[in-house]
Amino acid sequence: MPDFFISYTSADRSWAEWIAFALEEEGFSVVIQAWDFRPGSNFVLEMQRAASGAERTIMILSPDYLQSQFASPEWAAAFAQDPKGFERKLVPVMVRQCRPSGLLSSIVHIGLVDADESRARSLLLDGVSAKRAKPSERPAFPGTGAQKARKLFPGSVSVAESSTYIPKLKQAPTDATRRRFSRQAFDAIRSYFEKGLDELAKHSA
User: Fold this and answer.
1) pTM for this entry
2) Rounded alpha-carbon distances, angstroms, from residue 109 to 29, 34, 53, 100, 161
3) pLDDT tens digits for range 94-111
4) Protein fold of 4-128
């Protein structure tokens, strides 16, 4: 049984493939029409088998998806198996701004709208995880004197003002965790430099 079936419309194929690839990089098994429905197969039967046989269904939410007549049966199969959402069988991922209505309006979605690649990947993987979304660092104190609290952003902070916080791990990190951290760190650094180069290009030929 595959972990995820990706339900999408042709307008969002690039998003569907990006999400499927990111999930498989983390060791999940994925069924997606673009990769798994091969020439000679029966499209309707393949879709029915994927929608009903996968552990969970990811729906790529967009205005086109909500207007599609063919997408409804795909997510309805997952919804019927878990109408109360206790098993999180249906996982909406919003890639373009839209307003789900009816049954879909009550399901918490993963929002990737306007996120860069590194942030979108983190949001996706955190969203499909069964773990709590507790931050790794203590949130800034919101009460009186909050403006004097330690800044979360590390820019323009002197050495004397800064302090290093090393969280205590409950267990040793796995190889998969180390690989994920390395990828995310590299993506963040690459994104930072790409943005810097774009800014330089705007001000200098």
Assistant:
1) 0.62
2) 21, 23, 22, 10, 38
3) 999 999 888 888 888 999
4) Rossmann fold (3.40.50)
